[in-house]
Amino acid sequence: MNTSELDLPKVYDKAADFMPLLGTDYLELYVSNAKQAAHYYKSVMGFQSMAYSGLETGQRDFESYVLSQDKIRLVLTSPLRSGTDVGRHIDKHGDGVKVNALWVADATRAYNEAIKRGAKHYMAPTREEDENGYVVRSGIYTYGEVVHIFVERNNYNGIFLPGFKKWETAYNPDSIGLKFVDHMVGNVELGNMNKWVKFYEEVMGFAQILSFDDKDISTEYSALMSKVMSNGNGRIKFPINEPAEGKKKSQVDEYLEFYEGEGVQHIAVATDNIIDTVTKLKNRGMEFLQVPDSYYDALEARVGKIDEDIEALRPLGILVDRDEEGYLLQIFTKTVQARPTMFFEIIQRKGATSFGKGNFKALFEALEREQDLRGNL
After folding, report:
1. What CATH number does the domain containing 119 carry?
2. Could you report the per-residue pLDDT of 17-32, keeping only the tens digit for each?
3. Which stretches within the chain are classed as H helix?
4. pTM greater than 0.90 (yes/no)
């Protein structure tokens, strides 16, 4: 199943964890053309055909294509007619993440615990079944229109969920080595970050593990603030960003303007060989944010010795940062849809448990260069 392969925290009280989360079950994106989006994620990012739901399965209002790569499952959903909630969501926000589904042992308990602690209802515990068994799903709202769906699937042996059939295609490009969802970042309005920090603490039992203010993430022109929330066993991590005052618009301001509200800014996916993964992505047409070549001149002095050849990282634009536990390598794509909203991070951890604080300034400046080209800085 979709569990992160990071070790459990050194201090984890399993008995006190009132909402144990086993991992990311799937991410569902509402997109304007799921069939074409599926081709993009397969061709460029190495996902494989997995399951389908639509007219052929009795679903009359929308269709969904499910793609997988190792422990990652993406669901791409589009409306089949006008006047649907899916279509309204796309009309307002453009393509983006609607559902972050979390794998649990008991979806009814997870829902009841969340509602009891103040969560807003999205989906009551619902048993869905077919000849392969049954799944129980429930759901709550989080920031913006994003929802968490709790998925209990220990009594199900089907391809994905009831209502889906196996999706078989002749075209399945090779994997690029993506392993699992490392973390998912949300952008919220100015003044709302602490509200959602409190939500994850009180409603879902998360703890704040890191905090960055506008001194950590700033340039001459713009800034943001961020707090990183983690569940008890450390398998689910949600950094939450809000804009900070600056001379010009920050990347979060731009996102909020064009997404028309709060939502998921980026999805970080893990790999065991970032050089190979990024090389394949570039060869397949993925575009990345680029930092100045001078970034690499002082890299070893800043992070110390690393296993990788710095001259192999330089042409790819891969960044490096170190913390007390080790180091990480990371790179960010440009936005992957028409609006300047959602993008992906590719990350490889060599012991590090942090999020690349030493790269924030270089990344922010790269983002500002893109914003300036769009006339949005």
Report:
1. 3.10.180.10
2. 899 999 999 999 999 9
3. 34-45, 85-93, 107-116, 193-204, 251-259, 274-283, 299-303, 310-313, 360-374
4. yes
